[in-house]
UniProtKB/TrEMBL annotation:
Residues 6-158 form the TniQ domain. Residues 203-302, 323-447 form the Transposon Tn7 transposition protein TnsD C-terminal domain. InterPro entries: TniQ, TnsD_C. It comes from the Bacteria. This is Transcriptional antiterminator. It comes from Shewanella chilikensis.
Length: 515
């Protein structure tokens, strides 16, 4: 299958918008039909900021539109990529190439972030009017959907559409169109938003490159505080001065609206502003970095320069661990020999509880030896652990349960599609079963043989509708069959269509013979 005339994404257009325009060009009104055409799958979720299946989309575009280019030029991934460790950045790109639903949002911190996405899809009336003049159609720009960007520097405040986020219709790609984007007069833009937009635009056009480590971010923020003189004593950051700077530059209402207001208490562990100047153990949102730098450096800074400086920070090499060689029995002290005797009958933790005085003496006088021998004994115990689950037995049990389920379900023609997921849900422990199906070959083979495809499900619905309507009609009309089956011409798969045609033709032939 090939998608003809798939639209080339405009500069700064979201990939979500390009897919929606493809549906308009093809004249497709059914969201499932668009998914069939573009992705060859009906399970795709229409995602505005971080869509997946990018590799599939790149197939319909010229060669220069590689998956990496689509991710960096037509999604919001560049806003998060520089602030997560390199391994996570690469993993998230791999997830966006393929089809892991929601994994990138979790790994990039979007799902759990204190900064929430805008509640509605937004647009700039001035930019929309310019798009209509230049291109003859509308499209969704990336920066309109970025949290913190509340106005367009060129035209004014962004407007909300009635399209809620997250999308109510999860599978529908909605194109920017006059019915959603009314060209109205805009209020004057906000200077605070312009600060954000300036740096966001730089992040969005920044090319793909390796991300700094947490250690480099830690070193950068410590050096920034030292360079600006925000230190007490020799090594302690003066957090109160930094907090006052932030509160002086950024309006309190804006900080509260974006959940960035520093807590009033100086001992609050949830204070992100303090955490960003301490040792980094997690990534911080692009908006948090912008708030700090705008407050401390005013307008004399650019996010590109910050990222370049962080990347130049040294990373401490992990020192080579010196292997501790255990002394031979002849040179061991009585305490060491007593400890080894204890370890021959119990684990290190139990030995410590049995003889705390002995443990304390060894820890004080032979610490390296004690830690090494405890580690070795614990490791030996771990290596001798036997598998906790008999997968062959579990395979037989699940196979028997599935056979009973199929017998029960076959007695009733009604009900939802009997897919693999449906059967696994009925068994319980869906996620555990899905992860371990490779260890249960009989169960897996049974599911493959008995799972119902979409065409098979549609045929079953048509047959059920036909059986129900025969009570009222000698020859049920085609449109009634479709309505009772809950199907439409657009969503009906080809095997189901052929079955329906045969059903209607056969009924007409029977009626003709009776006459």
């Amino acid at each position: 299958m090939a998608v003809l005339n798939f639209p080339i994404p405009y500069t700064e257009e979201l990939m979500y918008s390009a897919v929606a325009r493809a549906g308009v060009r093809q004249g497709l009104t059914s969201p499932k039909q668009l998914l069939d055409e573009v992705f060859e799958s009906r399970s795709i979720i229409a995602t505005i900021d971080l869509p997946n299946h990018i590799a599939t989309l790149s197939r319909w575009l010229p060669e220069e539109f590689t998956p990496e280019r689509l991710i960096y030029s037509h999604t919001l991934f560049p806003l998060y990529a520089p602030f997560v460790p390199e391994a996570r950045r690469l993993q998230c790109m791999n997830w966006l190439y393929q089809g892991t639903q929601g994994a990138a949002h979790l790994a990039l911190g979007v799902s759990a972030s204190r900064i929430k996405s805008p509640r509605f899809v937004r647009y700039c009336p001035g930019c929309i009017a310019a798009q209509r003049e230049q291109f003859g159609e509308y499209f969704w720009r990336r920066e309109w959907q970025v949290a913190g960007v509340e106005s367009c520097p060129e035209h004014g405040v962004l407007m909300d559409t009635r399209i809620a986020r997250p999308l109510i219709e999860r599978h529908r790609f909605i194109a920017a169109a006059p019915e959603h984007c009314h060209v109205t007069k805009q209020q004057k833009g906000m200077g605070v938003s312009d600060w954000i937009t300036t740096q966001v635009r730089r992040l969005l056009v920044r090319p793909a490159q390796a991300s700094p480590s947490f250690e480099q971010w830690t070193g950068y923020y410590r050096s920034l505080a030292y360079r600006l003189g925000f230190y007490r004593g020799k090594a302690q950051v003066d957090h109160s001065v930094i907090k006052n700077k932030v509160l002086k530059v950024w309006p309190a209402a804006w900080l509260i609206r974006n959940r960035l207001m520093p807590p009033s208490s100086d001992i609050d562990d949830s204070d992100w502003l303090k955490a960003i100047f301490r040792k980094h153990r997690k990534s911080f949102n692009y908006l948090q970095h912008i708030v700090v730098h705008q407050a401390l450096l005013d307008n004399q800074w650019q996010i590109d320069d910050v990222l370049d400086e962080v990347s130049r920070k040294p990373t401490r090499k992990t020192p080579q661990q010196v292997k501790v060689v255990m002394q031979q029995s002849s040179s061991q002290t009585p305490d060491q020999e007593a400890w080894l005797e204890l370890l021959s009958s119990c684990q290190p933790l139990q030995a410590r509880k049995k003889s705390p005085d002995l443990y304390a003496r060894l820890y004080r006088n032979h610490r390296d030896w004690l830690l090494d021998v405890n580690h070795r004994y614990a490791q030996d115990k771990a290596n001798h652990n036997v598998p906790r689950i008999d997968w062959d037995k579990r395979d037989r049990e699940y196979l028997q349960a599935l056979r009973q389920l199929v017998t029960f379900l076959n007695a009733n023609k009604q009900g939802p599609r009997r897919s693999r997921t449906y059967y696994l849900k009925l068994l319980g422990n869906l996620s555990t079963l899905e992860k371990n199906l490779h260890q249960m070959p009989c169960t897996s083979a049974f599911l493959v043989a008995n799972s119902e495809s979409v065409p098979q499900y549609q045929i079953r619905r048509l047959q059920n509708a036909y059986d129900d309507l025969r009570v009222l009609f000698d020859s049920p009309p085609r449109w009634r069959l479709l309505r009772n089956a809950g199907l439409s011409e657009e969503r009906m798969m080809e095997p189901a269509r052929q079955y329906l045609e045969n059903l209607v033709d056969t009924e007409h032939e029977v009626q003709r013979c009776r006459k």
